[in-house]
Amino acid sequence: xxxxxxxxxxxxxxxxxxxxYHLDVKNVLExxxxxxxxxxxxxxxxxxxxxxxxxxxxxxLTQSLGGVEKVFDDPQAGLILNIVITLVLWPFIAGIEMMGxxxxxxxxxxxKLTFAFLRRGSWxxxxxLLTSLLISIGLQLFILPGIxxxxxxxxxxxxxxxxxxxxxxxxxxxxxxxxxxxxxxxxIYLALMSVLMLIALPLILLAQSSMSIIAIVxxxxxxxxxxxxxxxxxxxxxxxxxxxxxxxxxxxxxSTDNIFSA
Length: 262
Hints:
The chain is mainly alpha-helical. The chain is 70% helix and 4% strand. About 2% of the residues have low confidence.
């Protein structure tokens, strides 16, 4: 059969809104680790590009705002810097987030996918800005609301990209769907955060010693696995909660060209 077919993988929006999905913390983390062992290259490549772009934007904008000291001393200048960096970087980070989603549905990716979803860049940037604002407000309100929102809104970007939702609709849907198993989501992210703290511990303890270079190498090596695992984990969660429709040709199920259904 030569025609493309539509395949639904994982959950769907209707079942997500009813809480009809299942998350097993151990299974999610184990699957994310298996994916990471074979797919960390493209994500690390994308993160490296985003890091370099962020450094360039920060340098240029800091100079235009009067220098590093002024940015640190002036809350308004710092706010401008954060907003601009968010608007510039998140359209590229969306590509990295989608790598995790594609890995979770069995597709291979390449670093160039970092640039593949820029056509949705304005919506992605707006969504990232809104979620950051909501989380910041929540953290100022006794911290716990911010933690709740950080977990509940963690899957908004793939909804904007893959489901082509508006930022507001993605935010509302995420809160409605993730509230059913929020504590499991929190447990998964907490496990990843704990690993981050563990690999950062030698860096903190040895920062002022002659062993600092070894601690830096150890941290970067650990991060080269943990960062891709984080995005693969989010991809698995997105698949299980919201699912994904793929437009696939039987002859090329591993291609990322034209895989999204209309």
